[in-house]
From TrEMBL:
ATP-binding recorded as keyword: no
Keywords for this protein: Aminotransferase, Cytoplasm, Glutamine amidotransferase, Repeat, Transferase
Residues included from the entire protein: 245 to 596 of 596
Domain SIS: 39-179, 202-342
Single Gene Ontology MF annotation: carbohydrate derivative binding
Complexes and interactors: Homodimer.
Subcellular location: Cytoplasm
Gene that encodes the chain: glmS
Catalysed reaction equations from the record: D-fructose 6-phosphate + L-glutamine = D-glucosamine 6-phosphate + L-glutamate
Protein name: Glutamine--fructose-6-phosphate aminotransferase [isomerizing]
GO biological process entries: carbohydrate metabolic process; fructose 6-phosphate metabolic process; protein N-linked glycosylation; UDP-N-acetylglucosamine metabolic process
Main location: cytoplasm
Class of the enzyme per the UniProt entry, highest EC level: transferase
Amino acid sequence: GKSGYDHYMLKEIHEQPTAIRKCLRERVSELEGTIDVDALADLEHDGPVQFVACGTSYHAALYGAKLLRERGVPAQCFLASEYEVDAIPAIEETLVVGVTQSGETADTMSALRAANQIGAMTLALTNVVGSSAARECDHVMYIRAGPEIGVAATKTFASQQVALAMLSSVLSGEGSMEFVERLRDLPDQIQKVLDESNARDIADAYEGSDAYFFIGRGYNAPVALEGALKMKEISYEHAEGFAAGELKHGPLALVTDQTPVFAVIAGDTNVSKTLGNVKEVEARGAPVVAVTDSPEQVGQYADHVLEVPSAGPLLTPILANIQLQLVSYWVANRMGRSIDKPRNLAKSVTVE
Ligand code: M6R
């Protein structure tokens, strides 16, 4: 059941602290400051990594590829539906990682099969034990989010991000006591976001806008894309997410005083650049909502702030995303949408 929540989506948003604890269990050692994933013990790989995924899982994969590159592992990310349209980009030395909550998405399965066919090594990052992806791949790492009923992916996205953070440590051999401690603290920080969020007030203030835009740079760019996908999926409103720097290359033409811009500046190491983009939209009269762990630095440029605790550059974006999940939920709720089963969409997309 929904345990007293009006929708599965809201219940699952609130399950994120538990989901992350489960994802981390027996994989991070606080004593040693190490990250060890049993399921990956026999995965020996020092070549390039390619991610294939769709939708929200693709946004998690974008984040995972950034983590790997920062840690010195060449990594690329592909929409699964585009992976084999032209020549398949993998070579035998590539590790191809399918990020798929359900483990049944047809496009992702097809990309993984193609990778297996050319002799690349494959890994499924999935939530469902024994799913098609788990069976197809040479290796499997479970994200342990627990069943997700709402069509909108919420807790599985956070669990994918955390699983990818661990995977990137395993593959790069890089991980520090500090990172392990930050991972350990994440569930409590998520709880704090859930307990203190003012997302509902923001939804009240901006429901009925012409469109909703989301911008972010670096690790916050996938969060901007995800914020927009969630908004369009459950509210049926026009929403777009952009890497912050892209705004001035076209989308800025859409910005008016009727289009709130959510600027994700969380754990950001390029705050001044993203603030530059914020000033560009403000000059067009757009209301700005900053999603940030540095309100003292950013707040003066925003009409509203959705605050998150600091969890460092790699993990604070995970917290920012939770604020955006709540904004979408409350906008859709105010509009009376069918939140758990949005029109035209299915939980698991088994056709290509
Ligand atoms: O089961 P998967 O992770 O492979 O699903 C991929 C997408 O269909 C999925 O993430 C979709 O975008 C979500 N409904 C978005 O909330």
